[in-house]
Amino acid sequence: QVQLQESGGGLVQPGGSLRLSCAASGSAVNTMGWYRQAPGKQRELVATLPSGGTPNYADSVKGRFTISRDNAKNTVYLQMNSLKPEDTAVYLCNYHKRYINGREVDYWGQGTQVTVSS
């Protein structure tokens, strides 16, 4: 069982910045990332980053958000700049692992609220 510990989030004015962190237990060979869910909307990918791989971003956050990770700490970060009101959502950390036998597992953090408002 993988446990995820999220931190960061909060209230910020439009144009501001926030940084989210997510530390995972378990294997460091994985893909970690962030998804978000706004009220009344489906969960959507924000950014993911495999260990030893390249990042993948949603078009809506390209150029504003940066995902990074510290493999030694099994921790992923999301630096969010130039925040917009439409970025308001609960942000959820995701841990995804695919095993050699093809089995895939996903674990989710409890979510952290990001509110962008003046």
Explain this structure.
The chain has 118 residues and is mostly beta strands. The protein is 0% helix and 53% strand. It contains no helices and eleven strands. The strands form two sheets. Strands 2, 4, 5, 6, 9, 10 and 11 form a seven-stranded mixed β-sheet that branches. Strands 1-3-8-7 form a four-stranded antiparallel β-sheet, with no helix packed on it. 29% of the residues are buried. The mean pLDDT is 95.
**Could you state the order of secondary-structure elements as H and E?**
EEEEEEEEEEE
- The helix fraction, in percent, is under 10%
What Rg is obtained from the alpha carbons, in whole angstroms?
A: 14 Å
Class by SSE composition: mainly beta
| Annotation, overall tally of beta strands | 11
Give the low-confidence spans: none
Question: CA-to-CA gap between the ends?
Answer: 40 Å
Task: Compose a concise summary of this entry.
With 118 residues, the chain is mainly β. The N and C termini lie far apart (40 Å).
